[in-house]
Amino acid sequence: MMKALIYHGPQRRSWEDTPDPQIVDPTDAVVRVDAVTICGTDLHILKGDVPAVRPGTILGHEAVGTVMATGASVSTIKQGDRVLVSCISACGRCRYCRTGMFGQCLGGGGWILGHRVNGTQAEQVRVPFADTSTHVLPDGVDDEAALMLADILPTAYEVGVLNGQVRPGDTVAVIGAGPIGLAAITTAHLFTPSHIVAVDPAPARLEAAKRLGADLLIGAGDDAAAAVAELTGGLGADVAIEAVGIPETFELCTRLVRPGGHVANVGVHGAPATLHLEDLWIRNLTITTGLVDTYSTPALLDMIAAGRLDPRTFITHRFALNDIAAAYDTFSDPMTSGALKIVLTRG
Questions:
Q1: What is the pLDDT of residues 138-169, one digit of tens each?
Q2: Radius of gyration of the chain from Cα atoms?
Q3: Pairing of strands 171-175, 195-199
Q4: Is the entire prediction scored with pTM above 0.90?
Q5: Per-residue pLDDT band at 345 (split at 50, 70, 90)
Q6: CB-based burial of residue 201 (10 Å sphere; 0-12 exposed, 13-18 middle, 19+ buried)?
């Protein structure tokens, strides 16, 4: 038996005994979890925003760990390897996987860990499609840095920065300076924008945004549209990245962006948002949505190994894995705790 965080329905979770995972398919691996984190999506699940998650499911979709066993068909990882477990699983064979859209996998992958199958917030995890859903870690990359590549870095980079087509000289507005928003600020800098604007009501998160390179901070009570207009000579932002997942922040993005600009929605939405086409139809906007595909993970891993990127700056709190209940309490109250990313490690 092992310990795992099990979802028992909206607002109900428990760290409890459950059977050890086993190899089910020949493409599986069983990984001992050495480091794991909590995602904003886990909070959405606990609020009941993701009804596909059934009671009894182990939560979590991000981990770094050690391979304990592999199925007969696994060839690229072996027992004892230190691996990143990606938030996206990929069969590697379907039409979408063949074009790099692993998040839309038709062969049983996509976002399944902690969603449709048991996840990573446990002492061990079964990883389907292990050859194409894990990354062997170089010796120079530590567990904490690698853990940030399981979800937030590729999500912010792909769904926010790349979908938003950030270019040199752009003004980029990031709405929400939580972990995803901060990762968007960090990876937007790869394209040398002129300005990065961070919008968030929490002073601690705005301080983190400033530390990571935002040069205009907009807090609670500030007029974001007026501030962005003043910065850009009345034009508006070239790119607005939505990193919260509520109707108000999506609609704010559409007001901040200039004609011909891009709105890149990254946030997980649990309620409808109004699309004001009566105002937007004439403005030549491009609005994108997306689930991360993690095609960028190898490149981001190379940047960490080369010392060009250090995502450990997102980490504010550390807990032992057995203290996961306290970690959730801290992560779910960022206004009080100042929590960004939390790392839980095996004792």
A1: 988 999 999 999 999 999 999 999 999 999 99
A2: 20
A3: parallel
A4: yes
A5: very high
A6: middle
